[in-house]
## 1
Amino acid sequence: MTAVALAGYGIFAPADPTPEDRDRSRLLVALAWTSARRSIGRIVGRDLVSDPGWDILLDLYVNHMQARPVFVCGLCLAAQVPQTTALRWIATLEKRGLVDRAPDANDRRRSFVRLTEAGLDRMREALDASSDSDRRLGIGRLQTIQ
């Protein structure tokens, strides 16, 4: 695969990206968002930059891309908010058709949460828009494509 540098941005992308390249790029953007949000929260205070809905969506997307199941309790930790707050956000995301819950067949006390197809589409669109915005602003992420 041939990689090209996008002039002035320090970004390396395939000349003709495959769906796998796009998925890998989106995953890297989601991981970067997650890391940045945690760093900013640690530096200026989580209460000043809290966005539990976005944190939940990012965590679900990353876990979806890595084929890992996500339990409600894990999303509460990922959002770094009290359980009641995370549960309200999960319910809101569910009402909007972005996520759904399913009971754990092995332990009925637990539930899995996953992005719906509409949720996956929205996350792909949001991560692509984030990448486009970074390129326009000149904030490049170095990606090596092999």
Note: Residues 21-137 form a domain with the Arc Repressor Mutant, subunit A fold (CATH 1.10.10.10).
## 2
Amino acid sequence: MQRVLWSAVTLGCALLALSAAAASSNHNTVPSGKLRGVPPAPGSTSFTAVIAANGQFKRGNGVTAVSQPDGKGTYEVDFTNDVTGCAYVATIGQTTSAGFQPAGFITVVGRSGTPQGVYVETQTLGGKLKNFPFHLDVGC
């Protein structure tokens, strides 16, 4: 019991030290209030895509193609513009307003050699590739 308590105290002290160090560091911090109410940059663009588990495009904007060239759980989504400097956000979810999807993992990254495309991978919680429907947002 005493060893467990000592470990908890040691861990608590280490976390306090890390918090204090992070609070005193100016590295990668934004002054308070600087981001509130900031409008999108002029000329900014947002592309969206809702994709069925079988790779079928359901709705969105700016999408030119969707494919599954690598098979189960992998998707390539192409857009009208170069998206290499954009932010990619994806989530597993139904393509309609009814029902739900079981939990899983989704990752998204820009496509190497294709500046207009992103690569999406969906997996079960066990890490196996599986086709899931998803929603994708690309903000530039």
Note: DSSP finds one helix and eight strands in the chain.
## 3
Amino acid sequence: MEHREREGDTAGEPNVRGWEAEPPEVYAIRREGSTWRLTRRDLATAVAVGVAPDVSAPSTQPGCERVWAHKDRVLALAFTPDNRLLVSGGADNTIKLWTLPEGGLLKTLVGHSSSVNCLAVSADGRLLASGSNDKSVRLWSLPEGRSLKTLEGHSGWVNAVAIASSGRLLASGSDDRTVMLWSVPDGQLLKTLEGHEDWVSAVAVSPDARLLCSGSHDQTVKLWSLPQGNLLKTLSEHTGAVSAAAIDARGQLLASGSHDNTVKLFSLLENRLLKTLEEHSSYVLTVAIAVDGLLLASGGADNCVKLWSLPEGKLLGSAAAHANSVKAVAIGLDGRLLASGSADKTIGLWTLPELAIRSCLLDLEASPRETKGVQYRVRSGTGEPVTYTLPCGSPMPPGAVCICNCVPGSYSIPVPPTPTPRPCSCVPVSRPGPCTCVPVSRPGYCTCVPVHYWYPN
């Protein structure tokens, strides 16, 4: 991790992306060599979206490359219990609230002066905790995103936070090698747990709030009693830094991810190692367990998201849809949606258990505008329409309207009150006039055909 200066101040009014209700203006579109040519391989890739992946190797589904959700690395993700919001934190010092299922940006929270490394949402969905390189933990109200308290006491970066099911106790782990226990109602420091010999990079609290686990770069996972904070056991099975930890909803299974490229499953009833999952080819940086305890998701420096069955630990799917390390994964409460955040600044939403990419979250102010491929327009925060382009095979971002009529594209999100979207593939026409729209097998994904101009409707 590294310190990044804050880029801009977007606090204030909710940053909600609107619909493009007006007809698009007329543009001349030049064909740039083979930029818009859909090869047989590209077509096969685009059609394959949504199909269950081959677990023998990561699938190369159309991903979220350059559809940026943050201006810098995405480091943390968390769903609210009602599955209506996804929260993301990034190295751009911001926290963002995204509406579900459409995935539109609702609000950007500014308050931390450095990277937001970790997030936790309370069991009632009304409280958000965030930890940062600025050495603080901040508490926010949800869904308003109002800043409530700042907890200061760590002397190093805060890498991990967890909120007990009661909502009254918070644990934070830091580069200062400690875990701190805080009283949420008044923000008072209750106890400091010492024992790790290197950075504390992960914390998790059992559902009954009687057990805390902490993972560290000292290659160990420690188990502590709550609320007393007594050290119960040290698990030393990893051979690399422990970067992630999660406890299942029954409080019986612990999953830890490590720089030894593995995920290890531990029985908390017997305090012993059950299984080692070894399919990642580089550091495992993040893990998440579904509420029903049947699925485990992991992400790593191999740019892959992997899905496993529990408790067997069988690999169900693997996808390499990010262009850089997967820093965060989270599973929605209903177990049907997975979010992944990457150092490439993108956030992908995946359907489960298929592990099929559903959409890429987009902040217009963060995403580049020079990418070639499919053009679409959405209304910016100021109300002015902005035109962007995406590579062929990319999922259309929420709120986007495909500029049809011979601009390559494949999906039209309806303008209210139109009841249903109109999936279409834009093809050349011999004279100015309406675009020819034909159904596509995977609506919602960009397809490309050679065109010279886009004629007005």
Note: Residues 1-54, 370-394, 401-457 have pLDDT under 50 and may be disordered.
## 4
Amino acid sequence: MKGVIFDVDGVIIDVRDSYHTAILETIKYFSDKEMTKEYVREYKYKRAINNDWDVTYELLRKSGISVEYDRVVEVFESIYRENRDKERLLLTRDFFETLKERDIPLGVVTGRPKEALMYAFRKFNLLDIFDITVDEDDIEDPFLRKPNPFPLHMAVEIMGVDEFIYIGDTPADGDMIYFYRKMYGKPCKLIHYKEVQDMVDIGADMTAVNKDQLLNLLLSEVSLNREVERGYLP
């Protein structure tokens, strides 16, 4: 059986006015330095940094500002919570229900903290959609968190699928899939969902630029897989 696993930020949810704003405002809080979202995204993507706290901390250090990491997180989270209701859905409930109607196992692997993930899924009525969600707080060891492939391996094993498709949008997603293939070996494909982010190559097997194209691609991939399983194709 083939499952489908999603990243959240930039794939399910547009976070340009929440997380990306929090990066800019946290940097400004400590340094009075103005940066653009385009610069921040380019820095984050080209260095394959998954965690926005880490991106903020590194950009402050790059600007010559020395701040305790925990203090950066504290200010960041305060600003993020003020802006998180500006988030909007990229992939709607109807999108996921179409997949569920075909008995496709669905999962999430994200670097979001659990509280932020649950808040967003509750707000957008997605809490009951996924068979498994693996977030930042599910992985105690920081070195095993995304883009380490361990969270993905954990989701795949709990879902009980033989192979899967992962939908991501950043080089960190590409790295996670690359190392998953080396370490765990189950067949998998990576789709780069480009509705928000298409500025860098993430090493994807396929691409989709909007939700309709993504849905058709997923349905085609899963249908092809089932035809092979049933012996209709060589």
Note: Residues 19-86 form one domain.
